């Protein structure tokens, strides 16, 4: 059984005070949510504030990037052990913004994922095609190739800790969500590739969808059989909006 996982990706937003205020309100709104995993991916500078705000709750802390190296002369980088020390249980790797804007390649993303697993942090490995690639009918090839390349160093024994996120680049921050059917089609393909790569237990890996998820569309997205969660950017910045997404199963949300 794959437990749903709803992740807020704040990207480069929020000061420490803003992050702390968000956590206070979110906790008030969610109470003790135990039916789904809730994760907040904060900028490095807010990790401590969010960690402190989350003490005693089941909400998990995530980082948005990591260095694949353990330590050394890597100015400006943050190691997996440092993230573990900061209280992170998850870390996003290979987000399309890092691939497109900072030139991250599959091989490096794979090393980051393995390094995170080595310190007990769950990687959220992102894949997704651009609009150009989709229009050229290359979605399946691109996603399969990113997935294979980004998981090369991940050992089968560790896959219980792995999360994959499908984020079509054309749906990120654009308001153009993939239809639930479009997303399901790619999730099914990812699921098949994970089984090929890791054997039958590959079917247990959770796959999140990301790209303009909001309270109004999360119910339909989560209803798809191979969508196990959402990775939320813009709609995760306000606690009430993210709380609605987390409570997607509630009647109140279905009615919106
Ligand atoms: P939006 O929800 O703002 O489209 O961002 C999606 C995303 O990139 C999450 O990682």
State the helix count.
Answer: 11
Outline: globular
Count of strand segments: 8
**Mean pLDDT score:** 95
Largest sheet: 8 strands, parallel, barrel
CA-based gyration radius: 17 Å
Order of helices and strands: EHEHEHEHHEHHEHEHEHH
Give the CA-CA distance, first to last residue: 28 Å
The CATH superfamily is known as: Aldolase class I
Tell me the count of domains. 1
What is the SS-derived class? alpha/beta
Summarize this structure briefly.
This protein has one domain (5-247): Aldolase class I (TIM Barrel, Alpha-Beta Barrel), CATH 3.20.20.70. Helices cover 40% and strands 15% of the residues.
Characterization of this structure:
The structure is a single chain. By secondary structure, the chain is of the alpha/beta class. 40% of the residues lie in helices and 15% in strands. It has one domain: Alpha-Beta Barrel (TIM Barrel), CATH 3.20.20. It has 11 helices and 8 strands. Strands 1-2-3-4-5-6-7-8 form an 8-stranded parallel β-barrel, surrounded by 5 helices. α1 runs parallel beside α2 and α5 crosses α7. The relative contact order is 0.14. The mean pLDDT is 95. The site of 1,3-dihydroxyacetonephosphate has 14 residues, from β8.
């Amino acid at each position: 059984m794959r437990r749903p996982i709803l992740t807020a990706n704040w990207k480069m937003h929020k000061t420490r005070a803003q992050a702390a205020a968000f956590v206070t309100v979110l906790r008030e709104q969610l109470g003790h949510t135990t039916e789904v995993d809730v994760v907040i991916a904060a900028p490095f500078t807010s990790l401590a504030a969010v960690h402190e705000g989350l003490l005693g709750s089941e909400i998990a802390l995530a980082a948005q990037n990591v260095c694949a190296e353990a330590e050394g002369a890597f100015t400006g980088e943050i190691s997996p052990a440092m993230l573990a020390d900061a209280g992170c249980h998850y870390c996003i790797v290979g987000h399309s913004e890092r691939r497109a804007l900072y030139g991250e390649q599959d091989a490096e993303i794979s090393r980051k994922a393995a390094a995170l697993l080595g310190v007990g942090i769950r990687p959220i490995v992102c894949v997704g095609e651009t609009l150009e690639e989709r229009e050229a009918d290359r979605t399946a090839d691109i996603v399969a190739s990113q997935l294979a390349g980004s998981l090369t160093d991940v050992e089968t024994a560790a896959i219980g800790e792995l999360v994959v996120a499908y984020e079509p680049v054309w749906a990120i921050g654009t308001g153009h969500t993939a239809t639930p059917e479009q997303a399901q089609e790619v999730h099914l393909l990812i699921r098949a590739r994970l089984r090929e790569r890791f054997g039958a237990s590959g079917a247990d890996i959770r796959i999140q969808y990301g790209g303009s998820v909001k309270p109004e569309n999360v119910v339909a997205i989560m209803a798809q059989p191979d969508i196990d969660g959402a990775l939320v950017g813009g709609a995760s910045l306000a606690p009430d909006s993210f709380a609605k997404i987390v409570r997607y199963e509630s009647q109140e949300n279905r009615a919106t």
